[in-house]
Amino acid sequence: MSVLARRAGAELVGTAFLVIAIVGSGIMASRLSPDDVGLQLLQNSVATGAALVALIVALQPVSASFNPVVTLVERALGMIDTRTSAALIGAQFLGGLVGALAANLMFGLDAVTFSTRERAGAGLWLGEVIATIGLLLVIFGTVRSGRTDRVAFAVGGYITAAYWFTSSTSFANPAVTIARTITDTFAGISPSSAPAFILAQLAGGAAGYALVRFLYPALAASTAAAAVAADRKVLS
């Protein structure tokens, strides 16, 4: 099997399990704590952060972005080529949809029910911009400082916190955003709200990329070398 196929497979599986964690823990939280939204968010955020740590640790030797914005920044930094980035992004979107379907079915819901939960407004969109910038700084700052083995814990911790300090509860991921439109549960977002969220995430991605290049001017060379090393690791 080719390296690209293995990478795409890892992104599909990882994104699917991430969405299962987000949607499934949201459903469970709503059922266990129906009258306490704050407790629901706590349960949802802890489960999501913990799942992220586990998934990144497990899949990082192959591919563990699970996020089209992260993959686009990797392409902009020269870590991967256009063909690879397109394959990984496609796998992320597909994996997200599979994850949402699986979570719905696990809890006895219809496989697809479009969310009726409106999430709109300048404050929420700004929250998505900030959440995405922060995510990129955490990921690429950790890599640039030579602590790639700690990315999983940095990302898991950041997302858990960002659920609470951003107005939008930190989607920060277009593939996850699309997936969450097909579940009318605690974690859902209405299809009409999703485009603005994705635009905000892309804007945050552009700003985060610029900030990463400013703070870590030697990042492109070092991360490209790390990507080559990762390729060799996958092949072994």
UniProtKB/TrEMBL annotation:
Belongs to the MIP/aquaporin (TC 1.A.8) family. The chain crosses the membrane at residues 12-30, 50-73, 85-107, 122-143. This is Glycerol uptake facilitator (Major Intrinsic Protein Family). Keywords: Membrane, Transmembrane, Transmembrane helix, Transport. PANTHER family: AQUAPORIN TRANSPORTER, MIP17260P. Its main location: membrane. GO terms for cellular component: plasma membrane. It comes from the Bacteria. GO terms for molecular function: water channel activity. It holds the Pfam family MIP. It comes from Pseudarthrobacter equi. It is found in: Membrane. It is a multi-pass membrane protein.
